[in-house]
Design brief:
With 77 residues, the chain is mainly alpha-helical. It contains 4 helices and no strands. The protein is elongated and about 65 Å long.
């Protein structure tokens, strides 16, 4: 089916069918536009964000403190 044929066929559908078609198109576009994540690269990027030059990496306690501060900021302010 060509694009003009499809466009004409859309007007033959009920409103409910048009909404289903629209949702299907949106979902298809979301799937196509999601970049493939390379987990190794992502982990290395996150490590780079957390570690500051000339300092050792963050400890579990440091991360927990950051998490707690973020939650307080998010929910109590």
């Amino acid at each position: 089916m060509t694009l003009p044929e499809l466009q004409r066929a859309i007007y033959q559908l009920s409103v409910e069918e048009q909404f289903v078609l629209l949702e299907t198109l949106v979902q298809a576009l979301k799937v196509r536009n999601q970049p493939k994540l390379d987990r190794h690269t992502l982990v290395n990027q996150l490590r780079g964000c957390l570690k500051k030059t000339g300092q050792s990496g963050l400890t579990d306690a440091d991360i927990e403190l950051m998490r707690e501060e973020r939650l307080v900021e998010k929910y109590l302010k």
